[in-house]
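During the second year of the project, the team shifted from modelling isolated chains to modelling whole assemblies. The rationale, set out in the original proposal, was that interfaces cannot be judged from single-chain predictions alone. As a representative example for this report, we include one of the complexes processed in the last quarter. Its constituent sequences, exactly as entered into the pipeline, are reproduced here:
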Amino acid sequence: MSAELSKQPVVKEVPPKGDDLSAWYTAVCLRAELVSYSPVRGCVVLRPYGFGLWENLQRELDARFKATGHENAYFPLLIPESLLMKEAEHVEGFAPEVAWVTHGGSEKLTERLAIRPTSEVIIGTMYAQWIESHRDLPILINQWCNVVRWEKATRPFLRTMEFLWQEGHTAHATAQQAREETLKILDVYRDFAENVAALPVYAGVKSASERFPGAEETYSIEALMPDGKALQSATSHDLGQNFAKAYDITFADADGTTKHVYTTSWGMSWRMLGAVIMAHGDDRGLRLPPKLAPLEAVIVPIVKASDRRALDVAEQLRAALAERGFRVRVDDRDQTPGWKYAEWEIRGVPVRIEIGPRDVESASVTLVRRDKRKGEEGASRNVPTSGVAEALRETLGAVHENLFAQAKEFLTTHTFAVSEREEFLERCSSRAGMIDVAWCGRPECEAFVKAQTGATTRNLRALEGQARCVACGESARVRAYFAQSY
RNA sequence: CGGGACGUAGCUCAGCUUGGUAGAGCGCCGCGUUUGGGACGCGGAAGUCGCAGGUUCAAGUCCUGUCGUCCCGACCA
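Output from the structure prediction step:
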């Protein structure tokens, strides 16, 4: 963005995105009525428009879980302290951010209860009761719930003390099945990110230091934000037998011996919505991917004192589109059309349908795309009223593709394959984006890079051929994306 | 958790230095005229100045504490 353009906000109440991403992000979250701050520190209220985003995320992701054989269930919010303590690494990882219930009414509890920061513990305990035989496996359960982590610094969606997410927990007879499950879900997350959220991501395995406490392996999808920082958007963990051993989850196998199960866990939170907001938004506010948008289209009737026909036409069109499954509303509030255009642009509705006297005369409507700038090629077009449903379907698809293409272009042009040490450190320090390098895989090496530059490995993938670690010069074992992260 | 900034009307902020009866713009409500990119006129409502103490005849203003928000860093799946 040019300096001249940056001086005046394009939209009042929303500062230019390129000037200060943090200020832009917070302003948009509030102004678009996604969230409100609440009287509780670090906790936000998810308003109806924001909850609409979450509902669509849920619907799309849940359908994918169901399609891969998972069922939903619900487990308790509170976890007895003694239960939590059984898996040492896990406890150590979460201890600093667990909130505790110490009293019931005025009576002090004999045992403290943790408010779940995640549910491996309580679910593992139940699995121990439910599983007896290899015939009981696999167990494939997901729950949609809230969790609490006592965070020090919070921001809407990206890091809040209480947040909404889904957590899947599965148990399997063999290590291989657990690994396959972990990778299957990783691919569900990648598919969701790309085809629902219009967000290109890098999927891969986490380094040892970035691994979930108690996991054998953690996999993640990582998106790139406009400031060059990476945002971990979902994780999938292969827990091996660690939790099975801690919580004594065993089964009688076909060969007659008793064995520990292999478990997995995986989660995506409303943090994904933060990634969507930041990656796609522009100087005029939100730009929502159609599949997540609470409203796919808003109809703005333009009425004159002498001609109020547009109002009826708009309502008929709304009913016809709703009938065909579109999420639409008519904005018939007492405001000028220009006011409504600006308002719905801030709130990111993918398509605006204008109906004025001219359109009524010609039995047509005007479709305007939010993802394009005013006057840009293809930003608006006039279509016959009879063909609106088809045109809308087509346009929503095009908006998704365009948002994805723009985000992909950003990711591609901000991913740097680097083999020189100096350039590597410089790009890491300057938040250039995803720095793609050959890496030795040693925790000391990663710690050194973090201390020098603030960047860590986001995730790793196989190294082809032979190379030297870009940071320390030892023999490289993997390829890694380094970046500073949220 | 460390460093910095800020809490005054729904929002953005002025007023604080030098203590003396609470201000503006936008928004909101009513009526009328309007409506193809944030309309206009007239009238109106709205704030225990984040909260709690203290100093003072008198505190939005000075002092202490506390809660919250933002930024930078540390921490964090």
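Chain A has three domains: 34-279, 297-410, 415-483. The domain at 415-483 of chain A is CATH 3.30.110.30 (Translation Initiation Factor IF3).
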